Amino acid sequence: MPHSEPRAWETVLNHLEQQLVSGQLAPGQRLPGERILAADLGVGRTSVREALRVMEALGLLSAQTGSGPTAGAMIVSRPTGGMSMLMRMQVAAQSFPVADVVRTRLVLETEVMRALAESDPAPDLAHAEQLLDAMDDAGLAAHEFLVLDARFHIAMADAAGNQVIAAMMTGLRDSIESYVLAGAPLGTWPTTCARLRCEHRGLLEAVRAGDADLARSRIVDHIRGYYAESLGRDHTRPDDPGTEHSPPRV
Fold first, then answer.
1. For the whole model, what pTM was predicted?
2. Residue 67 in contact with residue 211, Cβ under 8 Å?
3. Residue 114 and residue 110: Cα distance in Å, rounded?
4. Which among 33, 130, 150, 159 is most buried, taking Cβ atoms within 10 Å?
5. Greatest extent of the chain over all pairs of C-alpha atoms, in Å
6. Mean pLDDT over each residue of the chain, to the nearest integer
7. Residue 239 DSSP symbol
8. d(CA 205, CA 209)
9. Residues near 233 by Cβ (< 8 Å), separated by ≥ 6?
């Protein structure tokens, strides 16, 4: 099959990608105006706008309307939003089964725990501990607790220093959070909440003790227990009956 010619907005996108790779564009730098880009690339301003909207949706661009020094489009430094949106949409469209997403999270978080426990010097876990302190508030609703829960896991990934893993984990968490919230066992929530608090503290203890095996074991048990209870079965085991079925509708 012959390759189709790229559409005009794809030409703009490819041009900006090449400039990022070459270093001509960098995070924090503002893009040339629409008129300049359109003239340089021989495309219409509508095509430039379409390309910039794609980059903004992917979390690569922050656009401000109006005039002045803060107006225009700027490359952002940590584009986690695009990955999060992609994961959410793929799970919603059943392209990525929930089981696969959960197992991938398990792979990533066991690596995070290993890296943290073996880190020399010891990692800075102050932000993660602050989030756990906030989660001790007995007045938190379930959804408020789970938001802090997600931030705790991302904070641990950030502390491990691998930005790719941190970005992927953000997307993975967000992509299945709606299913978790819909299936959360609210009738037993106080018990579940207390268990999660204890398990989170246990993760920090294992990391601070420098015990990589214990940290990995605890995160495996934590993730398996969390999704088995929230989604009704263990999505981390390949032989679990029904794990290859379509994700639940919410």
1. 0.72
2. no
3. 6
4. 159
5. 63
6. 82
7. T
8. 6
9. 240, 241, 242, 243
